[in-house]
Amino acid sequence: MSSLDSNNHRTVGNFTLTPSQQLRKQRRLSRAATYSPLQPTFSAIHAPGSTFAAAALISGTTIGAGVLALPAVAAPAGFLPSSGALILAWAYMAVGGVLLAELSINALGETGRTGLGILELQRRYLGKAGGIAGGFAYFFLHYAVIVAYLSQGGSNLACAIRDVSGLDLDALGRGLPQIFFSASVGSAIYFGSKRAVEALNNVMVGGVILSFLGLVAIGLSTADLGALINPEFQHPENVVNALPIIFVSLVFGNIVPTVVTQLEGDRKKITTAIVGGSAVPLVMLLAWNAVIIGNLAHVPEFYEVLSTGTAFTDAGKQIDPIGLLQSEGHGGVLLKDLVATFSEFAIVTSLIGLVYGMRDAFTDVLKISTEGKEFNKWKPAIFAGVLIPPLVVASAGYEHIFIDALDLGGAFGVSTLFLVLPPLMVWKSRYEDPDRSLTTLPMVPGGKLTLGALWKAAGTLIIEQGADKLGIIDWVKEEIMPQIEGVIHQLS
């Protein structure tokens, strides 16, 4: 119900409106309200959003195809160190999500507008330059992830067609599986109605859930659980290299403004939804790593990875745990089929969400609606811009493109968008603009100390990964350190 305070301000949900704002902004702030203007006090009766539904939305957004690359980076570090890193990364992402919620609540209360996305929040709190930096990180992340998904989705499709019909798409032309996969999914999204695409996605999500439950139930029964805790297989020094893909596997920040709108700015409900909703994928990722690593521990080339802590075999080939399970059938034929099903369904559901997200980002840049004649005029160009550039890269035949693309997206895209920028935006919101009205008190304790620690840690990760990707760290180890050691030896 709405209420009137002593100054004749109207309160809807958790927001206070002046009389001049009246019905128009009340409709925006109370998403599920039904209004009764005939009542003498002007009442607004609404059904508050469901915390469980919001948590489920976060869980569904988080569970993506990034999970397919996780065992490849977790195995060189070991199950225990990688599990510790997953838990810490989850806590970091959960705090970042709550910070984004705080920004969304304040922006919603200040403007009366729902649906303010990540890019608009960045422009609002960081200005034009910050908005450009955030936009670059947004497009970089999404393009990198789409490259990875088109590459792996095409490979999975080629394997399925080869198993069923004996036809080898790879033999017909380089990149043909990726082109076929991109055309299939892209056409379904482009030509399909919103309801049809939603129905397809729901079926795929059901397939993801059922296949995951099946592979965990079967995989844990056949896994070598002792290998998971074997001290010889734990290499904590390799955890840093796993962090980019770990963070990609835990991303849900884009959906936070939607959750804030659904729960009408209720701090407690929003925090519960973010923490609880993101904890479910954390448990799934831990179980997933246990199944994959435990079932491959006895395989010679994978045993080599576990014992030496390197992601490459003596032959210089990067290990592909999911590929091993799918091609060799370790753990049984049923586990192999379940992993293949989960892999393809997870990629398709993730790709659908990414394409829609990029479509919305392009329409935001072009300042047009996502429907109507203006959108239909731009629709071919928008979809071409979303799919063709990553398809060119994905079909080039680069051997490690799936993991490397996700690694780059996590190191620079996720780190910038969801680890560095949220604490910076909250800092500006709380401390650098005394005239800005705040709708909510800080939702993350610790004040400046917490915010500073968050963005500095994320900045350090970006610098370290940048130096690693550019070969600077290897150069220092191979060229500089021996010289320093030689000088020290001469002085001693």
UniProtKB/TrEMBL annotation:
Question: Which UniProt keywords are present, listed alphabetically?
Answer: Cell inner membrane, Cell membrane, Membrane, Transmembrane, Transmembrane helix, Transport
Where does this polypeptide localize?
A: Cell inner membrane
Q: Which GO terms describe its cellular component?
A: plasma membrane
Q: Where are the transmembrane segments?
A: 52-75, 87-108, 129-151, 171-191, 203-222, 242-261, 273-297, 338-357, 378-398, 410-427
Query: Would you indicate the residue range of the signal peptide?
Result: none
Q: Does the keyword Transmembrane helix apply?
A: yes
Its chief place of residence is: membrane
- Tell me how this protein sits in the membrane: Multi-pass membrane protein
Q: GO annotations under biological process?
A: amino acid transmembrane transport
Q: What is this protein called?
A: Amino acid transporter transmembrane domain-containing protein
- Which species is this UniProt entry from? Corethron hystrix
Instruction: State the taxonomy lineage.
Output: Eukaryota, Sar, Stramenopiles, Ochrophyta, Bacillariophyta
